[in-house]
Amino acid sequence: MVSRMRYLAVALVLMNACEVRFGGDGAEEADNKNVSSAPEVPAQPTSGTIHGQPFAYEDASIDEGILKLRQGEDFFADLEVTLFLWLDDKTQVPEGRTWDIDCQDGWTSEVPHLHIAWREDGQSMPEHDNIMCDYSLFLEFGEETADKKLPGTLLLKAPTLDTELAGRFEATIEGFRIVDGQVDLSQDDMEVAQYLAEEWLSGQHGSAIEIEDRSLGWLELEEREGRQQAGYFVYWWRPVDGTETRFSKLQFSKNGGLWQVERELEPWQVPDAHPLSTPSSLSASFQYRAARRFEEEHRAARGVSPLFVIRIQVSYNPTTGLAEAVVRYTRDPERAREANKLMGGGDEEHASVRYLFRTNASHPANKDPESWTLDRRLEPNEEVDMRSGRVVAG
């Protein structure tokens, strides 16, 4: 059983004259006076305007009851509309469901929240706006396809947001979900990893456990050609009948389209030193070799005591033939537990070691990882000048 879900909808039910019609399996039907015939939706990809700007949908997703339509390829979309659908069970996909809403005078818990985002010319970060009512919506979903897409049709009019959309879309099904009573292990989602972690740790330790926290990790959520999807996390947990909190370093892999726990690392092991496949890129190779050297030095000096690497930062210049890897770490479990809560900062809170790499190729511009060697550990007072290719004492 999954210990937590990512979204908790807290609904405030207000008296209003909002007309709502639901359709589909398990849906509630409003009074007949609120039911209208389904409108005609253009048989073309969803388009229109968002915040007065021309919009043509390029990508759509539905994740635990949150529908997004986007335009733009960057991490932040150029234009985006989001509907929070407040599903009773967010682990299910709303196949065959219909929302027919004309909300003008107030909001009820059945009415989706409407959010829009847009970027003005030259902006890197988007602007946002949202409403809980004062819009009309017709939204209808079809049946899930074999490649985990959910087709739908949309008519949306929100004059106060200067937004109007109409057309058809196909949303990628994302997030944690349950199919036929089983967790869908093919989903690229961190909640799937947490579910697997609970199952693994309960099995390994012979009793039910509760995960308290997750730290210091990542999960490869996108498929890349020639690269296996993998990841790792440090989980902080305790038996449900106990009080002692422990930690475990778990590595994950996706094989045959399904996520699994690959192995549990020792407390002193550095995950970057134990990849599931040999790193092929230059930067990843530097991280791997620095992690291995650091782990070896730790074992020689401190045995099996815990070690937590916060991050490994790499800089290099193939032309001058120098590279530097900075390993930031802590040996304190509590600091490791808090590391991910520092929003990417807090490097000054952690110790660090630095390693120098040199290329042994006859042509320094060679970017083949095999042409580089880990030269030595840098002294605290040494600085690497990437432009000149010199190491100087500070």
TrEMBL record:
It comes from the Bacteria. This is Uncharacterized protein. It comes from Candidatus Kutchimonas denitrificans. Residues 28-52, 359-394 are annotated as: Disordered. Residues 365-388 have a biased composition (Basic and acidic residues).
